[in-house]
Amino acid sequence: MKTQLEPTSGLDPLLSIEDLAEYLGVPVTTIYDWRVDGKGPCGVRVGRHVKFTQRDVQAWIEAHRESRPGAPPEGR
């Protein structure tokens, strides 16, 4: 992963789709599928590219945390 993980000048670092896929351990195509289905973390459009803030990714992960093993995420 080439993305700098420490904020520069107070800005939240941005992850590429490839960075996000590597971080989550899923194929890049899964990230694209999630975007089409509205299931993945919020993206930020930078020109033609889609990036993801670490803050949004962490919030998305927390929203999908199971309350107990095998249970669906809270509020679903």
Automatic annotation (TrEMBL):
Residues 14-64 form the Helix-turn-helix domain. Keywords: DNA-binding. InterPro entries: DNA-bd_dom_put_sf, HTH_17, SinI_DNA-bd, WH-like_DNA-bd_sf. The keyword DNA-binding applies. It comes from the Bacteria. GO terms for molecular function: DNA binding. The keyword Hydrolase does not apply. This is DNA-binding protein. It comes from Nocardioides euryhalodurans.
